Amino acid sequence: MSHLLEVKDLRKFFPVHGGLFNRKTTDFRAVDGVSFVLQEGKTLGLVGESGSGKTTIGKCILRLMEPSAGRILYAGADITHLKQRDLRRLRSEIQMIYQAPAASLNGRMTVGQIIGEPLWIHESLKGDPARDRVLELMNVVGLKEEHYYRYPHEFSGGQQQRIGIARALAVQPRLIVLDEPTSALDVSVQAQILNLLQDLQDQFDLTYLFISHDLGVVRYMCDEVALLYLGKLVEVAATEVIFESPKHPYTQALISAIPEPDPDSQREEIILHGELSSTISPLTLAGSGCPFAPRCHAEKLTQCETVPPPLLEVERAHQVACHLHPQLDSA
Q: Between the CA of residue 156 and those of 163, 165, 188, what are the distances in Å?
């Protein structure tokens, strides 16, 4: 199975200004050296706390933000520095579904116009052929023909998200970046949208990059999970491996906090103490020590405070950035 998306050492820094003349003093390291691959037809879950850099990675992949460094390969081609003309063609193959459906839809446009706009931009499709295509897409996502001339504010959150999904499908993409697509919805509606996304993946052979902080949703949707902490990957493995045998202390703490339906379960929740490391610091200090060290509940080693742990394979297809887990002997 081929790699549809490959991210290599991706970095996104934002300048921090201060002082009398508001000059740049340092950088905010939102994404700091992230690398991963996404197999075609699969779903990779990108998981982390708010501020960990998940959405920034998604926007860099779509080139809605310009990466500070690193490479992004799509279908084997480097798309990191594409010109605007080439980006337009690329965006017919890579689409995004946003967290807040109401905010992502133009309130002045009808449903038919919203879903049909990508057809006009990318395929110059207008008139009856465009209408027929829009109605077909609406049917695919569970909307009715009578909704064609209505406006977004007339719909519930779940229906608004269905409109966003139909818009993303309009140009027949291969890759869809899903940025917390169900976090703003009620639980019962979440299940409907997740099931719809799975059905669409099977029907259209889609590949998903699924951004979320909800581990229950990630376990249901994803084939593989990548854990982010303060802009760095700390663990990457198949979904069931992550949930059954987490290696990194941060991953262990997150999984221990998942509500346990069994009242007789002996699992204890790991409470994290200490303060978050700052991702704003002088460049001379950037990367000194493990970013999770101030909150880590595991036994600390000397290098935890001084040497940033690289992301290494500690078991087959299981990568961890932690000094407590030595690299797998490839021999």
A: 11, 14, 13
